[in-house]
Task: structure prediction
Amino acid sequence: MTSVCPRACALLLSLCAAVAQAEFRVDVSQGVEQGIPIALVAHSESERKLAEVMGADLARSGFFRVLSPETTSQATVNGEDLNWDAWDGNPAEYAVTAVVQQLTPGRLQLDLRLFDLLAGKAILARRLSAKPQHLRRLAHQAADALHEQVTGIPGAFDTRIAYVSQTRTSGRVHYRLYVADADGHGPVAILTSPRPLMSPVWSPDGRHLAYVSFEARRPQVFLQSLRDASRRALPGSGRASSAPAFSPDGRRLALAMAVDGDMEIFIYALDTGALSRFTHSPGIDTEPAWEADGQGLVFTSDRGGKPKLYRQSLRDPSARMLPVPGNYTTDAVVSADGRYLAFVQSTEEGGYGVALFEPESQGLFPLSSGTLDEAPSFAPNGFSLIYASTTRAGEQVLMLASHNGRIRQRLRLAHSDVREPAWSPYRR
Amino acid sequence: MRRLFSSTILPLFLLGLSVSLVACSVPEEEIPSAVEDSKILLAEDDPDAVEGVALDDEGNIVMGDLETSPGGDPGDDAGAVADVAGQGMTVYFDYDSTEVKPRFAEIIQRAAMHLQSNPSGRLRLEGHTDEQGTRAYNLALGERRAQSVRDMILEWGALAEQVDWVSYGEELPAVTGQGEGVWRQNRRVEIILEE
Result:
């Protein structure tokens, strides 16, 4: 980690620019060192629960240092406005009140207020509501609003992740495709299969998942609706297809298909069913990732002898190798704003880690260095990542990492391996 | 390059051998002279052959070689290297490589001979990788490994419709765990007889 720091700091410099454009000026150098200190006020049981979820969200983003919740009644006046005198000398720069009321049996109301303790005034007041069973979602939405108000960057807490689990019970193996909240809560298995599942990706509207299933004893790309669970194998996906990737407009799917024993990348038009071949190399071409403007793809190819990342435009069939060092650089994904690429690289220690590449500055920022870290996926705001990791004991887990790699949270399932995470787009 | 080697040069090399010869410990770069000297190499320069193991170019023990006797090594996936009349046979690969090593040529030839003498016979090739690297890339790697074996079987005269193939990438390891000792047993193409 220490060797990562200088380069990680370079990444943070570019983050400073984004933060500097925020409505409220933030002391980023301090934020980089320790996070912005923020205190959440919680009086009732439901408010404590809410503060716990909000606080975990904010802390995980890497931007905030969340102080222990203020539970004393002196912190506020009437539970809403701050009792400013009581906050004298408090290390927090921001304070949050979140008052929960159940107005009807079917409706929770949340009044969220954010106070700038240095400026001495409220800078956000928002009313949110949800069904009582959706208290956690209410907390995520509140954390999103707080994150955006303080950093200028929208939060991505009220989003979801998809991932694959493998469970072995009494000699039988089950593979499941799960959808859960972005913090890992509330997992729902949307598909269970006795044969492997791979490579889930979200459609840009968040309504479908594409993934690879071996249910027909060969890898095939499927599309599944989250609303009604209807699913179909992609027509024309051939003998073996894999590595699906939705175009940013959601109208096309890039995927790898076997041609004479080689994987080549094709583009499938979801509306017309037209299939066009994108790569023509004698080596492996796979793991396509759309650039943010939908005009080109980054992909893995071993045409040069080693698996490396290449970039190719939809209009010009010549591919260029990305200027990323290393003998093994694969599985790129592009952040929604196009600013960063995350990918997997072999490490000097003989393992595999996740790294970020910023095309504009040509900056390279190692984010992790594990034995087998893989499958990075960006949060829709581009400032958090989830990836798969294998522990020293061989357990497969998911890692939630902040933009700077400083904050990491491990998600694990008892008695199951988890892998292939995919972060959803924003909810619509 | 790799395809050219495995599909063209290797069968030519094999034609110069009687079927009973085993080129198990001949490093690939010595193939031209090995054609003449393979008998001597087998008898004198391959002490490991007695113990039923073979070494790859880096000196690692290779599981599932032709001489490997079932039960000879507890870590050996011995059942997978039975003859073609049994359940199946396995070809093993180096890291990130799709090149079929000469020592596995006889397995492949036997599979092809079986198909030639049984026109209704069918084989399925399952390409696998170790867990190193990313999953979709490994799926592509397994596909190429299966294709390398298929090319050689067809060059021995089997019909294309007799040989189906699929890649499972790293999804179905033969052995679970980590480390080279495990990984080398997972980098494989299984040749499976279909009834």
User: Anything to note?
Assistant: Residues 238 and 257 of chain A are 7 Å apart (CA to CA). Chain A is about 15% helix and 45% strand. Chain A touches chain B at residues 196, 198-199, 212, 214, 217-219, 240, 242-243, 256, 258, 260-263, 282, 284-287, 300, 306-307, 328, 330-331, 344, 346, 352, 371-372, 374-375, 390, 394, 419-420 (CB under 8 Å). The domain at 22-151 of chain A is CATH 3.40.50.10070 (Rossmann fold).
